[in-house]
Specification:
This protein has one domain: Sandwich (Jelly Rolls), CATH 2.60.120. Helices cover 2% and strands 46% of the residues. The chain has one helix and 17 strands. Strands 2, 7, 8, 9, 10, 12, 13, 15 and 16 form a nine-stranded antiparallel β-sheet that branches. An eight-stranded antiparallel β-sheet has the order 14-1-11-3-4-5-6-17. Strand 12 and strand 13 form a beta hairpin. The chain is globular, with a radius of gyration of 17 Å.
Amino acid sequence: MSRTPGRKRLLLVAFAAVAALGAAPAALACNSSGYTYAGLASPSKTHGVAARLTAIGGAHVSNGHIAGWVGVGGPGQGPNGKDEWIQVGFSGFEGSPNSDLYYEVTRAGSAPHYFEVEQGLRPGTSRQLAVLEVAGQPNAWRVWVDGKPVSKAIYLPQSHGTWRGIATAESWTTNKNAACNAFGYRFDNIRIAQQAGGAWRTLSNALPIRTGVNKLLRPSAASFEAISGTLLQQTPVLPKPKHHHAPPVYVAGTMTRSLSASVHAQR
């Protein structure tokens, strides 16, 4: 996703298993522009992906945006090689250490649509997130937050049994001479749906994704921390608040993002 108009495509995000735990610390200049990632992909196709996502410190966005999300699909993975995806997560932008909760949908042949669910979430905020294919409706997907649906069923052609589940942090910048964006996300209890509607199992034998200076720390097979730079503040996890989800607000044309074509190449 991006605050600028037009399609921003990542050229390559490799599954860097050997280097997954060896990211370099942030330097004065980021020395790279475009998208970088730190996360995990399921080793096989799935009907959904879920995780508890926590913003583990105050982010500092120097340029562009940051995000942590779970989702399926990506560039070139829809009908006739068109872009198609759905994901849900936290996003962050210049000027604030806080996060917004969003989901984004790209239908084949259409521009990405970004929906804002919550704003101004403090560091330490945690949400249980999922995208899941609807039982009895092949190719229809729904977004879930804290066990409740926040989207209608969304039809994505030729997506049934086609995509891997992905949980990842991302950073996007247009200026390689700017300081790297600083962020920290923790993903816990990552699960994969074995059939539409559920049949969840814990992620195992995941494929690591890491590029740029991002650190990918893996305390267990189904959890990880993605960290880059120095956070503005380290914040303990806050008690889960009681909250009511207002209807998501579609923000037309403000954010687009793309996922690694290397995930598609692992089929």
